[in-house]
Amino acid sequence: MKPAIPAVVLALTLSALTVQAADSISGASRRTAKSAAVIPKNIDAVTSASVVPQALRQSVKPNRFSLRPGVKRVLFVVGDPRSESVEWDLVNTAMKHFMDKGYDVELRDLYAIGFNPILTRENFYQAKDGFGKTPADITEEMMYVRSANFIVFCYPNWHDTPNTIVKGYMERVFQKKFAYRDAQNGLEGLLKGKGIFTIMNAGWVGMGRGDLGDGLPRAAGEKSNPIWDKYMTAFKTLDDDTAAFWGAKNLGRFVNDQTPGNLDEDYAAKLEQLRSDLRRHLDSKFSLKP
Length: 290
Ligand SMILES: Cc1cc2nc3c(=O)[nH]c(=O)nc-3n(C[C@H](O)[C@H](O)[C@H](O)COP(=O)(O)O)c2cc1C
Fold this sequence. Notes:
By secondary structure, the protein is of the alpha/beta class. It has helices at 7-26, 28-31, 43-46, 86-100, 121-129, 136-147, 164-173, 226-246, 267-285; strands spanning 73-78, 104-109, 150-154, 180-183, 186-189, 195-201, 209-210, 249-256. 39% of the residues lie in helices and 14% in strands. The strands form 2 sheets. The protein has a 6-stranded mixed beta sheet with strand order 2-1-3-6-8-7, with helices on both faces. Strands 4-5 form a two-stranded antiparallel sheet. The longest helix has 21 residues, at 226-246. Flavin mononucleotide binds next to α4. Pfam families: Flavodoxin_2 (PF02525). This is Flavodoxin-like fold domain-containing protein.
């Protein structure tokens, strides 16, 4: 009698065949560098991610929170590992704009500071109920949040929600007894008087730039477009709920899904248009004087 093929070997073989079949259909392997450890030199030509040409990249240094009386403070919480991205260009543009308008700006670059976004079993009850000692890394972040009048969350659209590192910041920093507490009639938000805002670069959310109502019309006479508005309504639902939980005000979003192509000949002009659209949007959302 032939020996039976162990089930585990069969499963592994079938799984390898399925992966190979999917790969040959998608052609993914042919598009990828042989070694994933080596990033191609012409990354801007081969990646589907945005890469701002070196000459156009800006480096903006936040002026930090000075606690000068009468000066409003904006905290940028950024979750993007790529400084060459359009997302980071939007962050830099926004930080500079607020500073030009006389605001104090503080930046928490979550990848750079190595923020740990994971709510573990060990710190679950501390975050959920406020039991025990707040972890030191969270105490520091609370200081920034407490001092801020506005908190701007910035992340590229990775599956339509805050990406992991930013979501983890929300879960771990905006905890009970800091952002909300039990009150007689349920939960009470503790961050009253603060505003939250989101800056998100996207691959495709129906085509548009801005917020609800700012979709690219698809036909003459159309004001926005319903697909874009469907996405923006979903984001607004999420942001309104998050803000309400914390007692803060949701000031909305700047979403962009009209990113210049990396190799566009008129890249500089398109980037400048994007930057000025963001500045105008911030003027309107934050009632900044133009
Ligand atoms: C893990 C991952 C998931 C993504 N999911 C979405 C998505 O759900 N919707 C979308 O519009 N774009 C999605 N994208 C595409 C990015 O939003 C797009 O590449 C965009 O340009 C990101 O901004 P950036 O280039 O400035 O980083 C995803 C990208 C990654 C890496």
